[in-house]
Design brief:
53% helix; 3 helices; mainly alpha; 64 residues; Helicase, Ruva Protein, domain 3
Length: 64
């Protein structure tokens, strides 16, 4: 398989995978960074002992 064909196949797989997520897209590093930023802020000062699920709705939908 050529490099171009592999890149095309990988892109197609990413599109198909993204479509299976409830939010309709794959996660980005920024999605995690926003949650971390919130947890480090004063706005999260009353949050203790919680698990923050950042999975684009996969757990809630019971997909995986």
């Amino acid at each position: 398989m050529s490099k171009a064909a592999l890149i095309q196949q990988t892109a197609q797989l990413a599109v198909e995978l993204a479509a299976s997520y409830p939010l309709g897209r794959l996660g980005e590093p920024e999605d995690i960074a926003r949650a971390v930023t919130f947890l480090l802020s004063e706005e999260s000062g009353w949050i203790t002992g919680s698990a923050l699920v950042i999975d684009g709705g996969v757990t809630l939908a019971g997909i995986m």
